[in-house]
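== Fold encoding ==
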Amino acid sequence: MPFLLLLFMTSCKKEAADKEGKLTVKDIKNPNSLIEGSDDLYPVMEFEEDHFDFGTLEAGEVVSHEFRFKNTGKASLIITSANSSCGCTIPSYPREPIAPGEEGVIKVEFDSGGKRNKVIKTVNISANTNPAIQKISIEAFVKTN
C-alpha cells in the first residue's frame, strides 16, 4: 500500500511540473527530486568556447577573456558562483537570471605575476543546470627574464 501512495504522489508531481513548465526552489536545491525525463526543464549553458589560450605572456602581465554563452534550455539560468583554482584567476559573472534564448558573459582575468612556464587554470561555475557545475579554462605560457 505505501508503494501505491508513493507512485500516486510521484505521478502528481510529474503532472504539476508539466503544467507549470518551471522548476521550484526545491528542485534547484535538490535536482535529484525531479522525476526522470524532466531534464528539459533545466537551463542549459552553451558556451561558444570552454577553453582559451592566451599564448605567450611576460611575467606580471594581466590579461582577460570573455567567455560568451547562451541559455539554450527552457528555464531561466541562475548562476550562484564562479570560482577559480587559484587567486591569480578572477572570474566575474552575471548576477541576474538569464532567460531562455538570452546570452551572457563570464569574464576571466588572469594575473601572470609569480607564474612561469605553462599555466592552466580552471573556473568552476555553479548554476541551476544539470550537472550543477560547468567548467571553463584558460592557459598561457609565462616567460620569465
